Amino acid sequence: MNTLVILGHPNSQSYCAALAEHYIEGAKAAGHNVQLLKLGELDFDPSLRSGYQKRQELEKDLQEAQRLLQWCDHLVVVFPTWWGAPPAILKGFLDRTLLPGFAFKYRENSPMWDKLLAGRTARLIVTSDSPAWWLRYVHFDPAIRLMKQTTLEFCGFTPVKVTRVDSIRSRKPNSLKKALLEMKNLAKTDLGIKRPRLQKVGA
After folding, report:
1. Is residue 196 part of a domain?
2. Do 30 and 14 touch, CB atoms closer than 8 A?
3. 152 phi and psi, to 5 degrees?
4. Which terminus of the chain has a lower count of CB atoms within 10 Å, N or C?
């Protein structure tokens, strides 16, 4: 299985980065072909300057990112929850890469759309200082809903699994280390995720 891991934290020395590295170790041990994108090390403008009204040329790093998104069978996005949302660099990456004609295509005279990245699975690994129950039941999971429902599922990824590593600020070192080790087993589990059949565009 071809697996693309995206580190959505701008700091490559962060705890999110450690989670991503441990997932990759487990994935390689399980037989995945793995590629890693560290968004904080890519060279691109995260702002979609003219919205969708004018074409904005893709930088080389984003061209490569689009190639890897098409290459992968399984996508893993590791990111923290900041102010109830993913970091700006991750949102900017999505704005710039998941473009009409690449990730989706609206149908003529219809409110429906074609999901051009269908046939792929995904997992979100999401950290937060707040406990998961607070984000879920008080704030209704805005970061996860944005990433899972209105972005990845919109483009055709399914299923999109979610793993939370919450209460980071109050966790003890042993608990943080345990969560890292759990990433290796998670990668093995993901190898068994059943992928949907590819459908013809417009079907």
Report:
1. no
2. no
3. -65, -50
4. C
Domains identified in the chain, total number: 1
Strand 160-165 with 121-127, pairing: parallel
Q: Indicate whether 94 belongs to any domain.
A: yes
Q: For residues 62 and 78, what is the distance between their CA atoms, to the nearest angstrom? A: 18
Render pLDDT for 9-68 as a digit per residue (tens, 0 to 9).
999 999 999 999 999 999 999 999 999 999 999 999 999 999 888 889 999 999 999 999
In a domain, 198, yes or no: no
Residue with tokens 């299985």: 1
Residue position matching structure tokens 């890519």 = 42
Residue 73 within any structural domain of the chain = yes
| Residue 31 in tokens | 């037989």
Which residues contact residue 88 at a Cβ distance below 8 angstroms, ignoring those fewer than 6 apart?
46
Q: Residue 36 has what DSSP assignment?
A: E
Residue 28 sits in a domain whose CATH number is 3.40.50.360
Q: What would the 3-class secondary structure string for 50-82 be?
A: CCCCCCCCCCHHHHHHHHHHHHCCEEEEEEECE
Tokens 């984003």, located at residue: 62
User: Hunting for tokens 């995260």 — which residue is that?
Assistant: 46
